[in-house]
Write a structure and sequence with these properties.
The complex is a heterodimer of chains A (about 450) and B (about 290).
Chain A (H helix, E strand, L loop, with lengths): L1 H34 L4 E7 L6 H16 L3 E7 L2 H13 L6 E4 L3 H8 L3 E2 L2 H6 L1 H5 L19 E2 L2 E3 L2 E5 H6 L8 H13 L3 E4 L6 H16 L1 H9 L8 H15 L12 H9 L3 E6 L2 H9 L2 H4 L2 E4 L14 E5 L2 E5 L4 H15 L1 H8 L18 H12 L2 E2 L2 H4 L2 H15 L4 H16 L2
Helix pairs in contact in A: 2-16, 9-11, 9-19, 19-20
Chain B lengths: L1 H35 L2 E2 L7 E2 L3 H8 L1 H20 L1 H11 L4 H15 L2 H11 L6 H8 L16 H26 L3 H9 L4 H30 L2 H6 L11 H7 L7 H30 L1
Antiparallel strand pairs in B: 1-2
Helix pairs in contact in B: 1-13, 3-8, 3-10, 4-5, 4-8, 5-8, 8-10, 10-13, 12-13
The chains are: A alpha/beta (about 450), B mainly alpha (about 290).
Chain lengths: ~450, ~290
C-alpha cells in the first residue's frame, strides 16, 4: 500500500516537473528564433483599442507594417485606455515590457525612464530628418530626458483648454461671447437667469477640471515662468498669492454657479452630450471632445458650436490667447530590445508615427503635434475650426504634465473640494506639500 | 486502520494540487504584499526599506480614516440592509409556488448583472439632471429633497450603499431559502402540537435552527463589504474629493495612479487586519448568543 502511495506522489511530482520544463523550453525556443534568421518576434502595446477613426487608422498602420515585413512575427495588443496605465505599470513591475509601447507624456514616461525601462529612439529620428523637422516646437520636450536623446515621438497633441460655445444660444439670449473675465462672469449670470447652464463640466474623473480649466486659468494669472518654477520648487511655491488668486477665480466660477449641479458625479462624455444637446452655453474642454463629438453627434448639432480661448484675467502675468497643451503620448522602445529586433522596432515606430500616419491621425479629427495639411472634406467642420485655432495659438503647460503624480492627484481632488465649498488656501497648501515631497531627493 | 489511513493519504494527495495553487496565488502573495508594505517602492525600479513609515503615514492620513469610516458605514448598512431583508423575503417566499419563484428570481437578478452594469444603471438613476430619483421626488412634490446624490458628501455614502445592498440580497436569500427548506417537517409538526405559530415559532423554533446560517451570512456580509470596490469605482471612483473612498478604493487610488506600490501594500495588509478583527468580533458576539 505504502508503495502505491509513494508512486502516486512521485508521479505527481514528475508531472509537475515536466510541466515546468515544457514551458521553460518553449520560452527558450522563442528567444532562439528571435536571434536567428527566420522570424523576429516583436510585441507592441498601445491603447488605440476603440472604434473611432483615429484608433482605426493607427491600427491600420500597424497592420500595414506587419504585411510589409513578413520576417516579423508581430504581436500587437490594443488595450482599452481605461486600463492601459495599470497594465503597463504591472508589466513594468515585473520587468516584462513589450518591445514597443505607447506611453503618455509626463509623469508616466518619466517614471519609466527613471526605472531604466526605456531606450532612446533618436537614431530613427535622425535617419528621417525631414520627418523630425516637421514636428511643432516643443513636440519632443516631454521626451528629451537627457540632452540630445529623444525617447518618443508624439502621436498626438493635447490641447486641453479650448472654450467651446453654442453660438445659437448666445445669439438667442443676447449675450456677448466673453473676451474679458468680466464678460465671462456677465455671461454666467445671464445664462443662469435664463435657466441655461453656463458651462457644462463632467468632473467625475477628477482630472477634468484641472486639465481643462485650471491649467489655462492659472497660467493667465501667474504666467508660465512662475508655474515651471513652482513645479520645480525653485523660488516659487503653490502657496504664493498669485496661485491663491488663480484658485480664487476658479472658486468665483463655482460660487456663481457656472457649472451645472452635480458636475462632480457625471463624466466628461456625459457633459459633452449635455452641451451638444443645447443644455449648456459653453464647455471648456480638450481636443478629445472634437474626436468624441465627431463620433457621436451630427453635423447639424455641430454647426452652432464655435471655438475660442479662455478670456484673459485683468492684471495677470500670463500671455492672453493661449491654450494649455503639449505633446501627446507616443511610442517608446523597451530598454531590453536588442539587435535585429531593435532595428525592426525602430522601423515600426517610424511606420506608426511617420508623416503618413501623422496626416491620417490629423484627418481622423484628432490633433497632432506635426505640421501637416489636412483635407477639409475629410474632417468635421468643428474640428477644422479648432485645428486652425490651435495652429495659431501658443501652448502653455498642462498642470499634470509637470506635477508629480501624487501632486496631480492632490490638485485634482482639491478642485473637487473647492467645488464642494472647501477653502482655496487649504488646497494650495496641500498641493505645495505634495509637490515639495516629490521634489525632495 | 488501513482504510482510514489510506483514505487520509488519498485525501491529502487529492487536495495537494488545489492547496498548492491556493498557496502560490493567495497565501504567499499576502505575505509578499505585507513585506512590500515596509518599502518605499514605485512598482518598478529600486525599493527602499523604510520600516513602519508607511503605516505611520497611513494613520496620520485623514483620508484613510475617512475610508475606514465609510467602510464601517457600508458594513453596518449591509448587515442591517441585507441579512434581515433576505431573511424576511426567504420566510415569505420559501414555498415553491410559481409566484414566489418569480419574486425570488427577480431579487436574485441584479446578482447576475455585471457590477459595472449595476453601477452604470444607478449612476443614471442618480444623474443630477436627468436622473429618475430626482424626477420621482419632483413628481411627489418633494422638490426640496432633490440633490446631486453622488456628489453631495452628506448623502453620497448612503446613496452608494443602496445599490450595493440591492445587488447583494440575492445570494443571501438563496442561502436562507435553502436553510429553511432543510428544517425537517417533524419539527414543524412538533411546533404545531405545542401551539407555537407566527412570531413565537419564528423566534423560538426557526431562528435557533438556522442561527448557524445567519452567522455565516453575517461573516460573508462583513468580508464582502470590506472588499467592496467595483460599485464605488464605477459610480464615483471614490470621489468627489475622495468623500466616498473605501479601504479598497483608497488602496487602489494610492497605488496605481500615483505609483506607490509600497504604500498600497501596507494599506492592503491593513485591510486584512481590519477584516480579521471584525470577523473575530462577530464570532465572539454571535457565539455567546447561540450558546
Amino acid at each position: 500500500m505504502k508503495k502505491t502511495r509513494k508512486l502516486g506522489i512521485v508521479l505527481l511530482l514528475m508531472t509537475m516537473l515536466l510541466a515546468a520544463c515544457g514551458s521553460g523550453e518553449s520560452g527558450k525556443q522563442a528567444e532562439g528564433s528571435a536571434g536567428g534568421q527566420e522570424k523576429v518576434k516583436l510585441t507592441i502595446w498601445h491603447n488605440f483599442a476603440g472604434d473611432d477613426l483615429r484608433a482605426k487608422s493607427v491600427r491600420s498602420f500597424i497592420e500595414q507594417f506587419a504585411k510589409d515585413h513578413p520576417e516579423v512575427e508581430l504581436d500587437a495588443q490594443a488595450i482599452p485606455p481605461d486600463g492601459y496605465r495599470q497594465r503597463l505599470s504591472t508589466v513594468a513591475a515585473a520587468n516584462e515590457m513589450p518591445d514597443v509601447f505607447f506611453v503618455y507624456a509626463g509623469s508616466q514616461s518619466s517614471e519609466l525612464y527613471q526605472a531604466k525601462l526605456l531606450q532612446p529612439i533618436t537614431e530613427v529620428l535622425d535617419a528621417h530628418s525631414d520627418w523630425k523637422d516637421k514636428f511643432l516646437p516643443g513636440a519632443f520636450e516631454p521626451y528629451e530626458f537627457e540632452q540630445g536623446q529623444i525617447y518618443s515621438a508624439p502621436l498626438g497633441m493635447s490641447a486641453t483648454s479650448i472654450l467651446y460655445y453654442n453660438k445659437a444660444l448666445f445669439e438667442k439670449n443676447n449675450v456677448k461671447v466673453p473676451t474679458t473675465w468680466d464678460e465671462m462672469m456677465t455671461a454666467v449670470s445671464a445664462f443662469n437667469a435664463k435657466g441655461i447652464t453656463p458651462i457644462a463640466l463632467g468632473n467625475k474623473a477628477p482630472w477634468v477640471a484641472q486639465s481643462t480649466i485650471l491649467g489655462s486659468l492659472a497660467d493667465r494669472v501667474t504666467g508660465t515662468e512662475w508655474f515651471k518654477n513652482a513645479a520645480a520648487q525653485k523660488g516659487a511655491k503653490f502657496t504664493d498669492p498669485e496661485f491663491i488668486q488663480a484658485l480664487g477665480h476658479f472658486k468665483e466660477l463655482v460660487d456663481h454657479k457656472a457649472f451645472q449641479d452635480g458636475a462632480n458625479s457625471i463624466d466628461n462624455t456625459q457633459a459633452e452630450q449635455y452641451f451638444i444637446q443645447g443644455n449648456a452655453a459653453m464647455m471648456i474642454s480638450g481636443a478629445w471632445t472634437l474626436t468624441n463629438l465627431a463620433a457621436s453627434s451630427t453635423e447639424d448639432q455641430m454647426k452652432d458650436i464655435e471655438v475660442t480661448v479662455l478670456p484673459p484675467i485683468p492684471g495677470g502675468k500670463g500671455k492672453a490667447g493661449t491654450i494649455s497643451g503639449g505633446a501627446g503620448g507616443g511610442l517608446a522602445l523597451s530598454s531590453r530590445t536588442e539587435g535585429k529586433a531593435r532595428e525592426l522596432a525602430l522601423e515600426l515606430i517610424y511606420a506608426v508615427s511617420g508623416p503618413d500616419a501623422q496626416k491620417a491621425i490629423a484627418e481622423s479629427n484628432s490633433m497632432v503635434m506635426y505640421d501637416t495639411d489636412i483635407d477639409k472634406s475629410k474632417v468635421t467642420s468643428l474640428y477644422y475650426k479648432a485645428f486652425n485655432l490651435v495652429k495659431s495659438t501658443e501652448v502653455t503647460p498642462v498642470y499634470d504634465a509637470y506635477l508629480s503624480a501624487e501632486a496631480a492627484e492632490v490638485i485634482n481632488n482639491g478642485l473637487q473640494e473647492i467645488m464642494m465649498g472647501g477653502s482655496v488656501e487649504g488646497v494650495a497648501q496641500k498641493l505645495q506639500d505634495a509637490q515639495a515631497r516629490s521634489a525632495a531627493p | 486502520m488501513p482504510t482510514a489511513m489510506r483514505s487520509k493519504g488519498f485525501i491529502a494527495l487529492a487536495l495537494l494540487p488545489a492547496l498548492l495553487l491556493f498557496l502560490i496565488f493567495v497565501i504567499i502573495p499576502v505575505f509578499w504584499s505585507a513585506y512590500y508594505g515596509f518599502f518605499s517602492w514605485k512598482g518598478f525600479g529600486d525599493a527602499k526599506f523604510i520600516g513602519l513609515d508607511n503605516y505611520k503615514e497611513m494613520f496620520r492620513d485623514p483620508i484613510f480614516w475617512r475610508a475606514l469610516r465609510n467602510n464601517l458605514i457600508l458594513v453596518v448598512s449591509s448587515i442591517v440592509g441585507q441579512v434581515p431583508v433576505a431573511l424576511v423575503l426567504a420566510i415569505v417566499l420559501f414555498k415553491n409556488s410559481l409566484f414566489s419563484r418569480f419574486v425570488r428570481s427577480a431579487v436574485f437578478m441584479p446578482m447576475v448583472l455585471s457590477t459595472v452594469v449595476v453601477g452604470l444603471i444607478w449612476g443614471y438613476i442618480y444623474h443630477p439632471q436627468f436622473g429618475v430619483a430626482n424626477h420621482v421626488l419632483d413628481l411627489l412634490g418633494l422638490h426640496s429633497w432633490t440633490r446631486a446624490w453622488l456628489s453631495d458628501p452628506k448623502v453620497n455614502m448612503l446613496a452608494i450603499s443602496i445599490p450595493i445592498n440591492w445587488a447583494n440580497i440575492g445570494p443571501y436569500l438563496v442561502i436562507f431559502v435553502a436553510a429553511l427548506q432543510n428544517i425537517s417537517p417533524e419539527i414543524h409538526d412538533a411546533a404545531k402540537i405545542d401551539g407555537s405559530a407566527g412570531w413565537n415559532k419564528l423566534i423560538h423554533v426557526t431562528l435557533p435552527i438556522i442561527w448557524g446560517t445567519v452567522v455565516v451570512t453575517i461573516v460573508l456580509c462583513i468580508s464582502g463589504s470590506l472588499k467592496a470596490f467595483d460599485h464605488v469605482i464605477v459610480m464615483t471612483g471614490g470621489g468627489p474629493a475622495r468623500s466616498t473612498e473605501l479601504l479598497a478604493t483608497y488602496m487602489y487610488n494610492s497605488t496605481f495612479s500615483v505609483y506607490r506600490y509600497g504604500y498600497g501594500s501596507a494599506v492592503s495588509t491593513m485591510i486584512m487586519i481590519v477584516s480579521a478583527v471584525l470577523i473575530a468580533l462577530n464570532y465572539l458576539a454571535t457565539r455567546r448568543k447561540s450558546s
